[in-house]
Design brief:
- There is one protein chain.
- By secondary structure, the chain is α/β, with parallel strands linked by helices.
- The chain has a domain of 161 residues: Rossmann fold (3-Layer(aba) Sandwich).
- 42% of the residues lie in helices and 10% in strands.
- The strands form two sheets. A five-stranded parallel β-sheet has the order 4-3-5-6-7.
- Helix 3 packs across helix 11, helix 4 packs across helix 11 and helix 6 packs parallel to helix 8.
Protein backbone atom coordinates (compact mmCIF):
# COMPACT_ATOMS: atom_id res chain seq x y z
CA UNK A 1 0.00 0.00 0.00
CA UNK A 2 1.43 3.40 -1.01
CA UNK A 3 2.51 5.78 1.75
CA UNK A 4 0.83 8.62 -0.08
CA UNK A 5 -2.21 9.91 1.79
CA UNK A 6 -5.41 8.97 -0.04
CA UNK A 7 -8.01 11.72 -0.54
CA UNK A 8 -11.24 11.45 1.41
CA UNK A 9 -13.72 9.58 -0.78
CA UNK A 10 -16.92 10.82 0.81
CA UNK A 11 -16.44 14.09 2.69
CA UNK A 12 -20.21 14.45 3.05
CA UNK A 13 -20.02 12.04 5.97
CA UNK A 14 -18.58 14.86 8.07
CA UNK A 15 -21.54 15.98 10.15
CA UNK A 16 -23.78 16.03 7.09
CA UNK A 17 -21.75 18.80 5.38
CA UNK A 18 -22.04 18.91 1.61
CA UNK A 19 -18.89 18.08 -0.40
CA UNK A 20 -19.73 20.82 -2.89
CA UNK A 21 -16.86 23.39 -2.84
CA UNK A 22 -17.54 26.50 -0.78
CA UNK A 23 -17.58 28.93 -3.68
CA UNK A 24 -19.95 26.71 -5.72
CA UNK A 25 -22.49 26.85 -2.90
CA UNK A 26 -22.86 30.58 -3.28
CA UNK A 27 -20.82 31.55 -0.19
CA UNK A 28 -18.42 34.41 -0.50
CA UNK A 29 -17.20 34.65 3.10
CA UNK A 30 -13.76 33.38 4.10
CA UNK A 31 -14.21 30.49 6.56
CA UNK A 32 -10.81 31.28 8.11
CA UNK A 33 -12.57 34.27 9.68
CA UNK A 34 -15.03 32.02 11.58
CA UNK A 35 -14.73 32.62 15.34
CA UNK A 36 -16.05 29.18 16.38
CA UNK A 37 -12.62 27.50 16.92
CA UNK A 38 -11.40 30.39 19.10
CA UNK A 39 -14.45 31.74 20.89
CA UNK A 40 -17.25 29.27 20.11
CA UNK A 41 -20.85 30.09 19.32
CA UNK A 42 -22.28 29.36 22.75
CA UNK A 43 -24.57 32.37 22.75
CA UNK A 44 -26.76 34.10 20.21
CA UNK A 45 -24.57 37.21 20.49
CA UNK A 46 -21.44 35.13 19.92
CA UNK A 47 -22.90 33.63 16.76
CA UNK A 48 -24.10 37.02 15.55
CA UNK A 49 -20.58 38.46 16.05
CA UNK A 50 -19.05 35.82 13.79
CA UNK A 51 -18.24 37.44 10.38
CA UNK A 52 -19.07 34.17 8.62
CA UNK A 53 -22.13 32.81 10.39
CA UNK A 54 -23.61 35.95 11.90
CA UNK A 55 -27.26 36.24 10.86
CA UNK A 56 -27.40 32.96 8.94
CA UNK A 57 -26.73 30.16 11.43
CA UNK A 58 -30.40 29.13 11.40
CA UNK A 59 -30.06 28.08 7.79
CA UNK A 60 -27.67 25.27 8.75
CA UNK A 61 -28.82 23.84 12.07
CA UNK A 62 -32.30 22.69 13.07
CA UNK A 63 -34.13 24.44 15.85
CA UNK A 64 -35.37 22.37 18.77
CA UNK A 65 -38.25 23.76 20.73
CA UNK A 66 -38.69 22.95 24.39
CA UNK A 67 -41.96 21.04 25.10
CA UNK A 68 -44.73 23.24 26.45
CA UNK A 69 -45.94 21.96 29.84
CA UNK A 70 -49.71 21.44 30.14
CA UNK A 71 -51.50 24.33 31.83
CA UNK A 72 -52.32 23.84 35.47
CA UNK A 73 -55.84 24.63 36.53
CA UNK A 74 -56.15 26.65 39.69
CA UNK A 75 -58.93 28.29 41.62
CA UNK A 76 -59.22 31.66 43.31
CA UNK A 77 -57.83 32.66 46.64
CA UNK A 78 -59.48 32.93 50.01
CA UNK A 79 -58.68 35.50 52.65
CA UNK A 80 -56.28 34.66 55.43
CA UNK A 81 -54.70 31.80 53.53
CA UNK A 82 -51.24 31.15 52.21
CA UNK A 83 -50.30 30.07 48.70
CA UNK A 84 -48.80 26.65 48.23
CA UNK A 85 -45.09 26.83 47.48
CA UNK A 86 -43.67 25.49 44.24
CA UNK A 87 -45.18 24.51 40.93
CA UNK A 88 -46.30 28.02 40.03
CA UNK A 89 -49.75 27.34 41.46
CA UNK A 90 -52.03 30.24 42.42
CA UNK A 91 -54.35 28.06 44.54
CA UNK A 92 -54.34 29.33 48.11
CA UNK A 93 -54.47 27.18 51.23
CA UNK A 94 -55.18 27.76 54.89
CA UNK A 95 -52.75 26.23 57.38
CA UNK A 96 -55.36 23.59 58.24
CA UNK A 97 -55.79 22.66 54.57
CA UNK A 98 -52.05 22.24 54.15
CA UNK A 99 -51.97 19.91 57.15
CA UNK A 100 -54.92 17.97 55.72
CA UNK A 101 -53.49 17.49 52.23
CA UNK A 102 -49.81 16.87 53.05
CA UNK A 103 -50.30 13.21 54.17
CA UNK A 104 -52.72 12.63 51.29
CA UNK A 105 -50.02 13.80 48.88
CA UNK A 106 -47.49 11.40 50.37
CA UNK A 107 -49.93 8.51 50.25
CA UNK A 108 -50.88 9.32 46.63
CA UNK A 109 -47.22 9.24 45.64
CA UNK A 110 -46.70 5.91 47.40
CA UNK A 111 -49.82 4.43 45.82
CA UNK A 112 -48.83 5.67 42.35
CA UNK A 113 -45.46 3.95 42.60
CA UNK A 114 -46.90 0.70 43.91
CA UNK A 115 -50.12 0.68 41.84
CA UNK A 116 -49.78 2.83 38.69
CA UNK A 117 -52.87 1.19 37.18
CA UNK A 118 -55.23 2.58 39.81
CA UNK A 119 -57.43 5.64 39.43
CA UNK A 120 -56.66 8.78 41.38
CA UNK A 121 -59.91 8.98 43.36
CA UNK A 122 -62.99 7.09 44.50
CA UNK A 123 -65.95 9.43 45.04
CA UNK A 124 -68.34 8.34 47.80
CA UNK A 125 -71.66 10.21 47.94
CA UNK A 126 -75.31 9.85 48.82
CA UNK A 127 -77.66 8.75 46.05
CA UNK A 128 -79.81 11.97 46.14
CA UNK A 129 -76.64 14.01 45.41
CA UNK A 130 -75.83 12.14 42.20
CA UNK A 131 -77.19 14.84 39.84
CA UNK A 132 -76.22 17.79 42.03
CA UNK A 133 -73.19 18.23 44.28
CA UNK A 134 -71.65 14.85 43.43
CA UNK A 135 -71.77 15.53 39.70
CA UNK A 136 -70.40 19.05 40.21
CA UNK A 137 -67.44 17.76 42.23
CA UNK A 138 -66.83 14.88 39.81
CA UNK A 139 -66.82 17.17 36.78
CA UNK A 140 -64.54 19.72 38.47
CA UNK A 141 -62.05 17.01 39.43
CA UNK A 142 -61.95 15.56 35.92
CA UNK A 143 -61.53 19.08 34.50
CA UNK A 144 -58.35 19.23 36.59
CA UNK A 145 -57.05 16.00 35.06
CA UNK A 146 -58.04 13.65 37.89
CA UNK A 147 -59.35 10.15 37.14
CA UNK A 148 -62.43 9.47 39.29
CA UNK A 149 -64.37 6.27 40.03
CA UNK A 150 -68.09 7.10 40.27
CA UNK A 151 -70.87 4.60 40.80
CA UNK A 152 -73.16 6.24 38.21
CA UNK A 153 -70.71 5.71 35.35
CA UNK A 154 -68.59 2.77 36.47
CA UNK A 155 -71.16 0.12 37.43
CA UNK A 156 -72.39 -1.68 34.27
CA UNK A 157 -76.00 -2.80 34.08
CA UNK A 158 -76.59 -6.39 35.14
CA UNK A 159 -73.55 -6.55 37.44
CA UNK A 160 -73.31 -6.86 41.21
CA UNK A 161 -73.47 -3.38 42.71
CA UNK A 162 -71.52 -4.29 45.85
CA UNK A 163 -69.00 -6.27 43.81
CA UNK A 164 -68.35 -3.32 41.52
CA UNK A 165 -68.06 -0.94 44.47
CA UNK A 166 -65.56 -3.29 46.09
CA UNK A 167 -63.55 -3.31 42.86
CA UNK A 168 -63.75 0.48 42.60
CA UNK A 169 -62.45 0.89 46.14
CA UNK A 170 -59.62 -1.53 45.45
CA UNK A 171 -58.65 0.17 42.17
CA UNK A 172 -58.55 3.75 43.53
CA UNK A 173 -55.64 5.39 45.37
CA UNK A 174 -57.52 7.95 47.46
CA UNK A 175 -61.13 8.21 48.63
CA UNK A 176 -63.28 11.35 48.68
CA UNK A 177 -66.40 11.42 50.87
CA UNK A 178 -68.87 14.14 49.87
CA UNK A 179 -70.49 14.99 53.20
CA UNK A 180 -73.99 16.43 52.80
CA UNK A 181 -77.29 16.27 54.73
CA UNK A 182 -78.32 13.48 52.34
CA UNK A 183 -75.24 11.48 53.35
CA UNK A 184 -76.28 11.71 56.99
CA UNK A 185 -79.56 9.99 56.12
CA UNK A 186 -77.71 7.25 54.22
CA UNK A 187 -75.37 6.69 57.17
CA UNK A 188 -78.26 6.42 59.62
CA UNK A 189 -80.18 4.10 57.26
CA UNK A 190 -76.99 2.06 56.63
CA UNK A 191 -77.32 2.45 52.89
CA UNK A 192 -74.76 1.94 50.13
CA UNK A 193 -72.85 5.11 51.01
CA UNK A 194 -72.46 3.82 54.59
CA UNK A 195 -70.81 0.64 53.25
CA UNK A 196 -68.44 2.65 51.06
CA UNK A 197 -67.62 4.90 54.01
CA UNK A 198 -66.88 1.95 56.28
CA UNK A 199 -64.34 0.61 53.78
CA UNK A 200 -62.67 4.01 53.35
CA UNK A 201 -62.44 4.61 57.10
CA UNK A 202 -60.34 1.46 57.40
CA UNK A 203 -57.58 3.23 55.45
CA UNK A 204 -55.58 6.44 55.76
CA UNK A 205 -56.62 7.44 52.26
CA UNK A 206 -59.82 9.46 52.74
CA UNK A 207 -60.65 13.16 52.39
CA UNK A 208 -64.05 14.33 53.68
CA UNK A 209 -65.50 17.29 51.76
CA UNK A 210 -68.29 19.04 53.69
CA UNK A 211 -70.91 20.64 51.43
CA UNK A 212 -73.99 22.32 52.86
CA UNK A 213 -72.97 21.22 56.33
CA UNK A 214 -70.13 21.53 58.85
CA UNK A 215 -67.67 19.20 60.53
CA UNK A 216 -69.33 19.88 63.87
CA UNK A 217 -72.57 18.47 62.47
CA UNK A 218 -70.66 15.57 60.88
CA UNK A 219 -69.16 14.56 64.23
CA UNK A 220 -72.65 14.17 65.63
CA UNK A 221 -73.48 11.61 62.92
CA UNK A 222 -70.14 9.91 62.24
CA UNK A 223 -67.50 10.57 64.88
CA UNK A 224 -64.92 8.49 63.00
CA UNK A 225 -65.28 10.47 59.77
CA UNK A 226 -65.67 13.74 61.66
CA UNK A 227 -62.33 13.12 63.36
CA UNK A 228 -60.63 13.27 59.95
CA UNK A 229 -59.54 16.68 58.76
CA UNK A 230 -60.93 17.71 55.39
CA UNK A 231 -62.17 20.54 53.17
CA UNK A 232 -65.35 22.63 53.25
CA UNK A 233 -67.14 24.28 50.35
CA UNK A 234 -68.37 26.90 52.83
CA UNK A 235 -64.79 28.24 52.89
CA UNK A 236 -63.93 27.67 49.23
CA UNK A 237 -66.16 27.13 46.17
CA UNK A 238 -66.46 23.61 44.78
CA UNK A 239 -64.15 24.37 41.84
CA UNK A 240 -61.38 25.55 44.15
CA UNK A 241 -61.81 22.53 46.43
CA UNK A 242 -61.44 20.28 43.38
CA UNK A 243 -58.27 22.15 42.31
CA UNK A 244 -56.73 21.67 45.77
CA UNK A 245 -57.53 17.96 45.75
CA UNK A 246 -56.11 17.63 42.24
CA UNK A 247 -52.82 19.21 43.29
CA UNK A 248 -52.60 16.75 46.17
CA UNK A 249 -53.23 13.57 44.17
CA UNK A 250 -51.67 14.34 40.80
CA UNK A 251 -47.96 13.73 40.44
CA UNK A 252 -45.65 16.09 38.59
CA UNK A 253 -44.35 14.83 35.26
CA UNK A 254 -40.57 14.27 35.07
CA UNK A 255 -38.60 17.15 33.63
CA UNK A 256 -37.76 16.88 29.95
CA UNK A 257 -34.05 16.70 29.01
CA UNK A 258 -32.61 19.98 27.81
CA UNK A 259 -30.61 20.21 24.58
CA UNK A 260 -27.45 22.33 24.51
CA UNK A 261 -28.05 24.06 21.18
CA UNK A 262 -25.00 26.31 21.50
CA UNK A 263 -22.62 23.34 21.75
CA UNK A 264 -24.27 21.69 18.73
CA UNK A 265 -23.87 24.90 16.73
CA UNK A 266 -20.19 25.29 17.69
CA UNK A 267 -19.29 21.71 16.73
CA UNK A 268 -21.07 22.03 13.39
CA UNK A 269 -19.26 25.32 12.62
CA UNK A 270 -15.90 23.73 13.39
CA UNK A 271 -16.72 20.77 11.14
CA UNK A 272 -17.67 23.14 8.33
CA UNK A 273 -14.44 25.10 8.80
CA UNK A 274 -12.42 21.89 8.66
CA UNK A 275 -14.18 20.87 5.44
CA UNK A 276 -13.46 24.27 3.89
CA UNK A 277 -9.76 24.06 4.75
CA UNK A 278 -9.60 20.50 3.42
CA UNK A 279 -11.22 21.41 0.11
CA UNK A 280 -9.08 24.54 -0.15
CA UNK A 281 -5.90 22.50 0.22
CA UNK A 282 -6.97 20.33 -2.70
CA UNK A 283 -7.90 23.27 -4.91
Amino acid sequence: MSGKRQPLQNPSRWHGVSSTPWRQRGHTADMTQCTAPREGHRTASGTAACPVHGGRSRAYYPRYSEPTPPPRTSGGSSSGSGSRSGGGSSVSYTAAERRTLAPIRREAERQAQAHPERRDLFLCHAWPDRMGAAKELHDALEANGVTVWLIEKDVPLGTSLLGQIDKGLRMSRIGIVLVTPALYKSIIAEGIAQKELAALLATDRVIPVAHGTTFDELRDVSPLLGARSGLETGESPMGEVAAKIAEAVLLKEPAQPRIDHSATSTLACMAELGMHLYLGSRG
